[in-house]
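Protein in question quoted in full.
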Amino acid sequence: MKKLILILIIAVNLVLPAEYTMSGVLKSFYATETGRDHEFLIEYNRFQLKTEAYSENLHGLFVVDLLHDLINHKEVISLREAWVEYFGSSFSIKLGRQHVVWGKVDGYFVNDIVNPLDLSYFLLQDFDDIRTPVNILKGKIYKGNSSFEFIAIPEFKSSLIPTSGKWSIFSVQFPPMFQNFKILDIVPENNLNSVGVGGRFSAFLLGTDLSLIFLRKMEYTPVMRINMADSLIMKTYPWFTFYGLSFSRPLGTLVLRGEGGYYKQRYFTTVDLRPAKSPFYQFCIGFDYELLTNFNISMQYIEEGITDYSPKIIQDEKRRISTSFLNYKFAEETIKPGVILLYNLEDESFMSGLNLELDMVDNLNIVVGGFIFNGERDSFFGKFDSNDLLFLKVKYYF
């Protein structure tokens, strides 16, 4: 796949005329716990250099990413995005490492499941940094107020989900008889048999944006399976089929929106490491409301559930989350305070934050604030109860 990306870069240089733009951003994200020790919970710097190239029918984008993560002791240089897109009169084709965004839920992922996720710091990073680009072939056909988009995903990359440390999302406690078993990660090979496929039909009807989604691919989160004969605990990535829909409709200064989907069959890790299978559903209904010219309110209700639940399944049977986002802008939109609340109605845990965004200097964006996590130690947000923090985010654009 690296050879393919190199070919794309060379092709753009050969085909496109000398019309290029270069830009970049330096991001710094620091967060310290509010407890007595004031230990750093997040501490990284990220530099991204973006090159775009244009011609009449072609558009190319290449983003070099340099990450220095002091908490996870990582120094990584990567080609984060690298794609070329061709535009015709009624269609487009886009090939390379890219994001495909099919969901628009604030603070959560429902239909936005095409790309794997980097949850190293739970949901605190920018979503563009949480969502990990992969190599995708995407085509789009336009006709009137409708379009059809299809994708093929030839590259498998698992999500980054911590199982230890301050930001551990889940950890499987193996039964005593399995303690000495070796863990084997069965990573799928990148070949024709592992290519994921999907499609989305979108239309504007009666003042409403509507989309229908189909996706078949492998899980990005591993499902644990025991192999007694070889004394192995295997991380596997089963296939799933997803059917989804979304809508958005403006009603004056209020926008009503929703999305959801159904997994025909999904596998789940169990306490005895013998995966259980069940249908699974997710949906979100919400609204965005411009109360005043500079005051915006966004509220959502999110629900997901395992329909054929077994007590052996480690994941919760049902999750119901309400979210609230309040944002205000003043001083010519250079000062923007905000309030965030995510509340799990099932286990009564929550994540709440205050932030102040400052855009008072050209090319410089500063956000300061804090987050509080609360709940029982085994609850969705309560597992981070000791991670209450104050943070500073700085972005410099050039």
